[in-house]
Specification:
The structure holds two protein chains of two kinds. Chain A is an all-alpha fold. Chain A is built from 13 helices and two strands; from the N terminus they run H-H-H-H-H-H-H-H-H-H-H-E-E-H-H. Bound molecules: CIS-heme D hydroxychlorin gamma-spirolactone and protoporphyrin IX containing FE (HEM) (2 copies).
């Protein structure tokens, strides 16, 4: 029962990493798109693809928080009281990012767009970085079961920082692949080339960090390292293979295939973390079953998750398909 | 407690310090961010309903003015929805960052309504997007129907989050052993005794706030001479909704007050500012609670007793019935007492406005022309927001010193590490910027629409009055605005 709740929670984490991640990554690309003139067209595409979906994607984060505090309250309290600095900064980053994005679509003067756009783009980098450090701190067992761990050293630590950097780069890769595909669907060769180059640059950076990360994990989080290389190995390999394939095929494969490859690359590595961590929530000191809420609560969450599956997933599919179709109509 | 640094030092001396240094900033921060979020909530919940009414009318009667209103309202809703969503996210973080004692222990019970809320948020966010981006891509009726889940999930979301709040006021449905929840009865958690009246009261408040605020915007336009059909309809739809909600709200408030009298005697004593238990208790309006009684207020003899039990001999518990260590401070009592008076005062004031509107409408079937009526309507939105905030102050401050009444003190719920003042300061700064930018952006939209209307002579059907806005800047700004607007 508690394992089931953990799985549901982790489905939320993966969904947020992929869907929310793609949105953050688009913000990262927005930041690096250059001055107002040069960056106009890429920014336009980013705006267009993000606007309808980012709020729905963002709700996955709420979903994770709510699942965590309801199903695993002790873990939630422990994480919050230890990692309050990165979490607080991430929360404020979310405010700036969401409102900056919403405002940018309304304001029309270049200076104002610059301010709101910069707010959106910079916070799109800061927020996932801090969320990534949180994931890294949890993965490397730096959150004590009773909470109130070291507020600084828990996340200013090798694995946590690695998590932060990866949480910026992997989504940027995902977003670049997505937007390349979008540009291709719109027959915009110029933009396709522009985002295609971003795919290559970001992929190479992500690759380098990932390889360096192996050494970091080995030294800093040996348990995670071992599990990743045993139980998690298929997932890690799948992630690497998909990432590599997306990179090599970026100019050739059909857009949907490319996008699927990038999604799989990100989803599998996050899953790998989950598998490596099982059956613990925090380090090796708080297991899923120890942290779990009473049975009736877990049952309620099961009901909620089932309803979500029946109602929310189709609605979300409707949103995405309308978005795609609408786009095909207008171009 | 007013000097937090003194407590910081003290906390090193005490093993179990009664009041951690984080308590004050955490309370301030929670109050500030909730107070901010709650202003946006009516626009997600009720404004979308008004938008659908305009949308419905536009399709049914082929009414282009209503269509224009619906489209523009959906753009406003999009901006406010985004700000509401991010400010709500901060609240979710804060429940853990500020109140780990609450979440760590009571999460399995308190969290259930939030899990249900999460479902509604998904639906709301999805269908808001479909509706807003579907204007030009869907046929009218299917498009209209994609708006309906938005309104329904707004109602559902409010019900579930208020269920969580009601549970804090009248907790039920759990068994606690050795400081841990060992058993949870979800239905009892959700349908706690405070749920029903709080939820209805909050929903009606949302309709009042959205209705009066939006009506006020068009009342200002009419006061400035733009009395065309566009403005009249823009005033009529929201004002009608608000005028229907107001009498129901006053009735619900009365129900809520009597429930609080029966089930939360300490809060009721604070509302009345009543120190000593007794019968024939007067209703004191205004004033401040000092040294065990309300001073400088106006007393209506037997008022409180009659209102709560329909007869003067009704016995009301005073603060003396609350054990000394759980008694609220004088300042808290004053605050709750005044906030309640403000809420009720606004309730009756807006009831007056609603009656005026109903009477004129009944006589002439049109928006009242009187400038005083329009002025009154113009400020009604602010009044409604004030009532909304005051009502929450009554509920939340009136619950102190408890977070979960009878089980968890606020000071035991609070985070005990870090300097929360820094976090609070950063939050205030960012929220101030976001709040100012929201207002700026909404004004920008309004300006753009005014320009567009006067350029096209649109919105002036019927009278043609008011479109000659001589003071609207013409020239490049408009051209650029119009060019920058995306379909
Ligand atoms: C437009 C807003 C508005 C208006 C006009 C009123 N209220 Fe209200 N009131 C609220 C908005 C509100 C609220 C939405 O802010 C609260 C906070 C918690 C809740 O459930 O509703 C509230 C709470 C609240 C409570 C505390 C409930 C609790 O703690 O459980 C009482 C006793 C009343 N109200 C009573 C009244 C009365 C007698 C009114 C008569 C005119 C009234 N309210 C008008
Ligand atoms: C009476 C109190 C509250 C009501 C009626 C309410 C209602 C709403 C509504 C209708 C929305 C949709 C967005 C919008 O309309 O702007 C929203 C957003 C949100 N609220 Fe609240 N809320 C309340 C208090 C809270 C509290 C206490 C929390 C958390 C602890 C919270 C968390 C959220 C979150 C996370 C969102 C964002 C959802 C999204 O991404 O769409 N709310 N709230
Ligand atoms: C349904 C949603 C809500 C929930 C779950 C909720 C929860 C909380 C919690 C956990 C606290 C801190 C602990 C405590 O002081 O008891 C708090 C305090 C507070 N809340 Fe709420 N709240 C809700 C709605 C609101 C709204 C809409 C307002 C609007 C103004 C509000 C105003 C306050 C204030 C003023 C305090 C500080 C009270 C004090 O410490 O004196 N709350 N709330």
């Amino acid at each position: 029962m508690s394992t089931f709740a953990a799985v549901v929670l982790f489905v939320g984490v993966v969904a947020y990493a992929v869907l929310g991640g793609a949105d953050y990554g688009a913000g990262f690309l927005d930041l690096t798109a250059g001055g107002a003139e040069r960056g106009k067209r890429p920014r336009h595409l980013i705006d267009d693809s993000l606007a309808p979906v980012w709020e729905a994607n963002h709700v996955w984060l709420i979903f994770c928080l709510v699942m965590l505090w309801t199903a695993f309250p002790r873990a939630f309290a422990a994480i919050m009281t230890t990692l309050y600095i990165p979490l607080g900064l991430a929360a404020l980053g979310i405010v700036i990012r969401g409102s900056g994005f919403a405002f940018r679509k309304v304001v029309v003067r270049v200076e104002q767009q610059r301010v709101t756009g910069a707010a959106f783009a910079i916070s799109s980098v800061i927020t996932p970085f801090f969320l990534g450090t949180v994931a890294g701190a949890i993965a490397s067992g730096r959150v004590p079961a009773s909470g109130y761990g070291d507020p600084i050293r828990s996340w200013l630590a090798p694995t946590a920082l690695l998590g932060g950097v990866l949480a910026v780069l992997a989504p940027a890769f995902l977003a670049a692949v997505f937007l390349t595909g979008e540009a291709r669907l719109r027959d915009d060769a110029h933009l396709e080339g522009w985002f295609g180059r971003r795919v290559q640059v970001v992929a190479v950076c992500t690759g380098i960090v990932a390889v360096a990360g192996i050494a970091v994990l080995r030294a800093d989080a040996p348990r995670l390292f071992d599990e990743l290389l045993t139980r998690g190995l298929p997932l890690v390999l799948a992630s690497a293979a998909c990432g590599l394939a997306a990179l090599l095929l970026v100019r050739r494969a059909a857009p949907r295939v490319l996008q699927a490859l990038a999604v799989t690359a990100v989803a599998t590595i996050v899953l790998g973390w989950g598998v490596a961590q099982y059956p613990y929530l925090l380090g090796t000191h708080l297991s899923i079953s120890e942290a779990a809420a009473p049975g009736a609560t877990l049952w309620s969450l099961t009901v909620v998750a089932t309803v979500a599956l029946l109602v929310v997933v189709p609605s979300m599919a409707l949103l995405f398909s309308l978005e795609q179709r609408g786009r095909l109509d207008t171009h | 407690m007013s000097d937090p640094s003194a407590w910081l030092q003290l906390s090193h001396l005490l093993v179990q310090d009664p009041e951690p240094a984080q308590l004050l900033p955490a309370r301030q921060q929670m109050a500030f961010t909730l107070g901010f979020h709650i202003i946006l909530v009516p626009f997600g919940v009720a404004f979308t309903f008004l938008m659908l009414i305009a949308n419905y009318r536009s399709i049914r009667r082929d009414d282009r003015t209503a269509m224009l209103l619906a489209r523009r309202w959906s753009q406003v809703a999009a901006v406010l929805f985004a700000v509401g969503a991010v400010s709500g996210t901060v609240l979710s973080f804060e429940l853990g960052l500020l109140w780990p004692g609450l979440m760590g222990t009571y999460g399995p019970a308190f969290g259930i309504p939030f899990a249900i809320e999460g479902l509604f948020f998904f639906l709301e966010a999805i269908f808001v997007a479909i509706y807003i981006y579907g204007w030009d891509r869907m046929r009218p009726w299917p498009h209209f129907w994609t708006g309906v889940p938005v309104v329904l999930s707004g109602v559902g979301g409010t019900l579930s989050v208020v269920a969580a709040n009601g549970w804090m006021n009248q907790p039920a449905g759990f068994t606690l052993r050795d400081g841990r929840l060992v058993e949870v009865r979800p239905l009892q958690v959700i349908f706690n005794k405070a749920f029903g009246y709080e939820a209805v009261h909050m929903l009606l408040a949302a309709y009042m706030v959205a209705g009066f605020v939006i009506a006020g915007v068009y009342a200002v336009g009419m006061l400035r001479g733009r009395r065309n059909r566009y403005h009249r309809l823009g005033l009529l739809i929201p004002l009608t909704a608000a005028a229907v909600a107001t009498p129901l709200q006053v009735f619900m408030g009365d129900v809520a007050a009597r429930e609080v009298f029966q089930n939360e005697p300490a809060k009721f004593a604070a509302i009345e500012g009543l120190a000593k238990t007794g019968t024939h208790v007067p209703e004191v309006l205004g004033g401040a609670f000092v040294d065990g009684r309300v001073r400088y207020g106006v007393a209506i003899p037997w008022g409180a007793s009659v209102l709560s039990g329909f007869k003067p001999s009704t016995r009301i518990q005073g603060l003396d019935a609350v054990p000394a260590q759980f008694r609220p401070t004088d300042r808290a009592v004053t605050m709750v007492h005044l906030a309640f008076d403000v809420m009720v005062g606004v309730g009756f004031t807006l009831l007056g406005l609603s009656a005026w509107f109903a009477y004129e409408w009944w006589r002439r079937r049109d928006v009242p022309r009187s400038r005083w009526f329009l002025r009154f309507t113009a400020v009604s939105g602010v009044l409604a927001v004030v009532a909304l905030e005051s009502g929450w102050v009554v509920t939340e401050v009136g619950r102190q010193p408890w977070t979960v009444v009878g089980h968890l003190l606020t000071r035991d719920a609070v985070n005990r590490s870090g300097n929360l003042w820094l976090f609070f300061g950063a939050t205030v700064a960012i929220y101030a910027a976001v709040g100012a930018a929201t207002i700026y952006v909404l004004r920008l939209l309004r300006r753009r629409w005014q320009d567009a209307d006067s350029a096209l002579g649109r919105g002036g059907e019927g009278t043609g009055v008011g479109d000659a806005d001589g003071f609207v800047p013409y020239g490049p700004s408009r051209a650029r605005d119009a060019g920058g607007e995306r379909p």
